Amino acid sequence: AQSVTQLGSHVSVSEGALVLLRCNYSSSVPPYLFWYVQYPNQGLQLLLKYTSAATLVKGINGFEAEFKKSETSFHLTKPSAHMSDAAEYFCAVSGGGGFKTIFGAGTRLFVKA
Amino acid sequence: EAGVAQSPRYKIIEKRQSVAFWCNPISGHATLYWYQQILGQGPKLLIQFQNNGVVDDSQLPKDRFSAERLKGVDSTLKIQPAKLEDSAVYLCASSLDEGEAFFGQGTRLTVV
Predict the structure, then answer these.
(1) How far, CA to CA in Å, does B86 sit from each of B16, B67, B77, B78, B82?
(2) Chain A residues whose beta carbon lies within 8 Å of the beta carbon of residue B93
(3) pLDDT tens, residue by residue, A23-82
(4) Cα(B105)–Cα(B112) distance, rounded to whole angstroms?
């Protein structure tokens, strides 16, 4: 069985500050892990994914995430927030091969000028 | 490359009416998903198809929801009869394998 917990339903940062969105997972098999972003009235767009290669994954728009097996975490970071980063972010886990993709509840990121 | 197409974008119906949503996945993607996203929550998987076979429908309320994927390409999701709590965005997604999923823009359903 798999599950995802996103810590913090809302995160607020100032423009130019570090963005850190937390995600912890559980999985009965080696996981595939994803971060998606959703803008208002839009579908989900993949930011980055981990599929058992390098543990530090770089994605689009300057985001990256690090897979830490010992901590069962896959936190999303960006060194410097931009106003356009304001959106809802979802962490997801899949086991591949017959396992469904499970999403966390989401974290809404606010960026202050 | 064309993305996942969904229609309609918006739908308002009265409770106890029926409604259907359509999804056309990315060409060549064998796996198709329907998710329900209630306001303020993450997407919840309703059903997953591999080609035209159902892989997982454990969270599909089968007394009122049904889905099909004839010929293993496009898919329809139906609700009959609708309840107020069915108000949500219904997202369709497709993938080549069971890793990265590509999402459509969704259909926002309001049941009044």
Answers:
(1) 11, 15, 13, 11, 6
(2) 43-44
(3) 999 987 788 899 999 998 788 999 999 987 789 999 999 999 999 999 999 999 999 999
(4) 22
